[in-house]
Specification:
about 80 residues; mainly alpha; globular
């Protein structure tokens, strides 16, 4: 995936993760994109470690793995913030 694909996927994943877990989180569009990209990395690492697959492109499986990683990052952020 190219850099533009990562940015677009990061925006979509970040928005969907914030929809799954609404609340007071920091963020404008840049933070949302970074959350989505970091979620893709975290979700891909955990999924490949557990044998479920990786983030290989712009497809449904990669999207779900990325959203899971982004939601996990939001949970960790909220736990640290408390």
């Amino acid at each position: 995936m190219g850099i533009l694909s990562w940015i677009v996927m990061g925006l979509i994943v970040g928005l969907l993760a914030k929809l799954v877990m609404p609340g007071k989180d920091p963020g404008g569009i840049i933070i949302t994109i970074l959350l989505g990209i970091a979620g893709a990395f975290v979700g891909g690492f955990i999924a490949s470690f557990m044998g479920f697959g990786t983030v290989t492109g712009f497809n449904l499986a990669s999207l779900l793995i990325s959203i899971g990683g982004a939601v996990l990052l939001l949970v960790i952020y909220r736990l640290i913030k408390k």
